[in-house]
Amino acid sequence: MESEVPSLESIYLVWLTGAGCNGCTLAMLEASEPGIEDLLLGNVHDAPRVVLVHPELSLESGDTFRNQMEMAAQGELSPYVLVLEGAIPDEALAGQGSFSRIGTTEDGVPITTARWVDKLAPGAEAVIAIGSCATWGGIPASAGNPIGARGLEDYLGRDFTSRGGLPVINVPGCAPPGEGFVETLIYVFLHLSRLVPIELDEMRRPKWLYGHQTYPLPPRVEYPPAAGFDLAHRPTVSCPVPLTGWMRGFGGCAKIGGACIGCTERDFAEQLLPLSRPDPAY
Amino acid sequence: MTVVFRRLPIQFDSYGRAFLRDEDVDSPFDFRDDSRLQREHRRERAIETVAGRSSLMEFSSDPVTRATGSIAATAQIDLEHRRVIDARLEATLYGGYELILNEHEPSDSIPLSSRISGRMSVAHAIASSMALEMAGGVTPPPMAIITRNLGACGEMLCECIRHLFLLAGPDYSEQVVSRTSPRIWQRAEGAPAKGRNVHGLETIGELMRGLNQLYGHLYIEALQQTRVAAEVVTLLLGKYPHPSAVVPGGVCIEADRDTFNQVLGRVNGLLDYSKKAAAVWDDLIEFLYEVEPGYRQSGELPGNLLSLGIWDDPESYDATYHNCNVWGDRRLSRPAAIIEGDIRTDRLSDINIGIEEFVDHSYFSHWNHQRFLSDPLSGPLSPYHPWNKETIPHPGRSDWRDGYTWATAPRWDRESMETGPIARLWSNAVSDEASFQFIGRLNRALEFEIPKGQRPAIRQVWKIPDRPNTFERMRARAYQLSYTGLAAFASLLEAFDCLRRGETEMSKRFNLPERSVGAGLWESCSGPISHHLVVRNRRVANYQVITPLMWMGSPRDDSESPGSIEAALISTPLFEEFSEPADFTGIDLLRTIRSFDP
After folding, report:
1. What is the C-alpha to C-alpha distance for residues B352 and B345, in angstroms, rounded to an integer?
2. Mutation target among A221, A230, A237 for the B interface, most CBs of B within 10 A
3. ipTM of this model?
4. Which residues of B touch A67 (CB under 8 A)?
5. A274: which chain B residues are within 8 Å (Cβ-Cβ)?
6. B112/A62 Cβ within 8 A
């Protein structure tokens, strides 16, 4: 960097993956107003130009790719925001192996997702968990899974504060809509530039997206059981999709007649199972 | 009768029923192929004799980026002779999804198993619903089958475009080619592009600049087109990734003409775009063959190709295993198992019983129990078949001789199989008749008539290549875009027919017996998605999923034969230009890995 004062002309976005399905990346790519390319090309007013370090999109591969993550950890890629997609497995359960690794040390020891979080979270201006796996464990944290998955806030501790003075920011959903996530990124950048305050609710979610309860409709199926969690006992969820649709204003799980499975909720999925209500007539 | 299985001990009677060749043999499936074992041992010894030579170097890429699966590759390369001596591919992530499904409410398998892979979530959801429908004996109504077909088309269109231009595309961009092959880049700048009437680009150099990551016009255009394809899924199935409208027995949207009209507009746009995509990749590949004829050997494999078929005929699909060879044959893209370029079978039940999954070099333990001796048609089942397989994770330190990956090694008739667009197009080009009205079948070729849109109408021809290689896999993916667009168009015509007739039922009552089995045999863009389900006491007793990453990214099997990507790496010559080993980027190897879309 030329200047000593961290300038927000540009910022690195280091994208780390754990136990998940990479669906959040797909959802992010679906956002178009603005799209991620607008951030990468520096087209968003007042937001810094974003340099992406992302395992699914980066030009570099292998050591050259991993070196960028190492450089971030050493403070040589500054400033940066860390995004985690996927849950963090408990690698103690993997013995000498690993459940989720990105690279190995020179001695052949796996560098696990958990280890990367240790290396990258302290120096990040902000730390964002995208998707239900990264926020609170999601489906990989369900019973029966031997990997001991958990979310980022649980892993780092609720007291964690990023270099930019923020707690872990949770953007839940399986996947969360891309437009909501790109908006969140922009708010975080503007907040780091001291242009706007970022409003988070008590669960550290972007308040304007998750701060109100919405009513998903029951699935439009002639005969139960249909997939869908128990709306009779919990009629509302904290999810923007029933209001905004899935992308460009249309679609949306329950809006089109499909099933809401409560994927933005903190107790998704283990506590909400079965997602399908068996017909009492059976 | 034609031979279906060369290695498995299964034969067929004159009615086409499968039986075990020798009933009296104990453990008929527990044989190992000694000749193949010996071949692999010879290769290992050959590697040992050259080990220590100064020209030998280990290339590793951990992670391999621009792949959706979490994978790492290691190759022993001989820089002097510019060849690969050995290669291993590791899947570095374990998600544990199969074990989560056990003991659960079977219908939950749809939303839970779709989370195995975001990009293939529509394919997983549909395969899961088919496994449930087979287990429950429930046939979804025609309009539901058509809607699922269309949703699956949307996902495949999205996947093709994303891979061609966002994942693999940058490997052929100015950014990469000017660095790894300056000689080729120089020629590209002046080389006229033959398809400029279609894609509007004057030179190959301009085309390669368009492929530049993030900044190239082809990259940005493709990013926008993937959104159009994602909108198709969103309109019909609620959202992508992870559709919300797929339920056992159908889908839960309303059969609304407006929705299908909105889909039609997007499919027309994507069909128009497919004209350009195929012309771009044809020009790129022909240019590369011309400047470096050796590229034809890059990633070359013998042509062992597997496709389970996709997009069901609403009149034939009845969800039963007993009729799977009837409805399988009526799919808009047909199933086939092809060995060394020759079709062995196009019957779904033969394909199913030929599948085995090995874990000798994976972080999993063997299972001892064999639940089923035969499939519902009385065809013999191997103890390694997914209806018998159990998932027992056993993590450990990576060891080439022991376990080194979280991928299993699925095989068909004990062969490692290649999957994805090249396998699907090939399967349809060798079948007896054209799959549907917009596809013409020529001699070992497919013909696509793509109607006028903003671009004029065009006729495309995809020919079966001599053998699959890195570049032909990419070309097939470009033509898969056209094929899929036309399949979507054909499905839309069926949908409007149904609406006219007032057939708007979207789901059937779903019920499960106490004990049952089911299989969802389907395709995602990069290859077969199979879900094998065992139901006991109306709960999931075993749920087995084989993903395309396992077919192509599999490790050595029980006979030490490499998986498809491993074998393709071993056959890849190194053309990269570099002055010293430190500058070596392994671009030829990375292109080969990515050509499979892992």
Report:
1. 11
2. A221
3. 0.95
4. none
5. 104-105, 107-108
6. no
Q: Which residue of A has its CA nearest to B73?
A: A62
As a whole number of angstroms, the distance between CA B90 and CA A251 comes to: 37
Report d(CA A72, CA A246) in Å as an integer. 33
**Residue B548 is encoded by which pair of tokens?**
């395309």
How far is Cα B362 from Cα B490, in angstroms, rounded to an integer?
42
Mutate to test the interface with A, among B244, B251, B260 (most CBs of A within 10 A): B244
Residue found by looking up tokens 């060749």 in the block: B21
Return residues 81-140 of A near B (CB < 8 Å). 89, 93-104, 108, 110, 138-140
Cα(A71)–Cα(A50) distance, rounded to whole angstroms? 17
Among all chains, which residue has been given the structure tokens 């999205």? B158
**What does the DSSP assignment read for B186-215?**
HHHHHPBPTTHHHH---BHHHHHHHTSTTT
B275: DSSP letter: H
Q: Domain B54-595, what fold? A: Cytochrome-c3 Hydrogenase; chain B (1.10.645)
**Going from the N-terminus, what domains does chain A have, and what CATH number goes with each?**
10-209 (3.40.50.700), 212-282 (4.10.480)
Q: How far apart are CA A8 and CA A192, in angstroms?
A: 8
pLDDT in tens, chain B (598 residues): 579 999 999 999 999 999 999 888 889 999 887 888 888 888 888 777 777 777 789 999 999 999 988 999 999 999 889 999 999 999 999 999 999 999 988 999 999 999 999 999 999 999 999 999 999 999 999 999 999 999 999 999 999 999 999 999 999 999 999 999 999 999 999 999 999 999 999 999 999 999 999 999 999 999 999 999 999 999 999 999 999 999 999 998 988 899 999 999 999 999 999 999 999 999 999 999 999 999 999 999 999 999 999 999 999 999 999 999 999 999 999 999 999 999 999 999 999 999 999 999 999 999 998 999 999 999 999 999 999 999 999 999 999 999 999 999 999 999 999 999 999 999 999 988 888 999 998 889 999 999 999 999 999 999 999 999 999 999 999 999 999 999 999 999 999 999 999 999 999 988 899 999 999 999 999 999 999 999 999 999 999 999 999 999 999 998 899 999 999 999 999 999 998 888 999 999 999 999 999 9
Interface of A with B in 27-46 (CB under 8 A): 27, 29-30, 32, 35, 37, 40-41
Chain A 219-238, residues with CB within 8 Å of chain B CB atoms? 219-223, 225-227
Q: Please, are residues A10 and A50 in contact by the beta-carbon 8 Å criterion? A: yes
Candidates A33, A41, A56, A84: best to mutate against B (most CBs of B within 10 A) is A56
Query: Any CB–CB contact under 8 A between A172 and chain B?
Result: no
Q: Which residue from B minimizes the CA distance to A51? A: B214
Q: What are the tokens at B387?
A: 């209806």
Answer positive or negative: Cα dihedral of B237, B242, B246, B247: negative
**Cα B58–Cα B60–Cα B64 angle in degrees, nearest 5:** 160
CB of B154 closer than 8 Å to CB of B233: yes
Residues in chain B, overall count: 598
Dmax over CA atoms of chain B, in Å, equals 74
Residue A15's DSSP bridge partners are: A83
Nearest-Cα residue of chain B relative to residue A54: B65
Q: Give residue limits of the domains in chain B.
A: 54-595
Alpha helix ranges (H) inside B57-203:
97-101, 109-113, 121-136, 142-161, 174-180, 182-190, 196-199
Q: How far is CA A278 from CA A144, A219, B538, in A?
A: 21, 14, 11
Indicate the residue of A22, A64, A227 with minimum beta-carbon distance to B247.
A227
**How far, in Å, are A229, B138, B382, B432 from residue B32 at the CA level?**
48, 40, 14, 35
C-alpha to C-alpha distance for A108 and A89, rounded to whole angstroms = 19
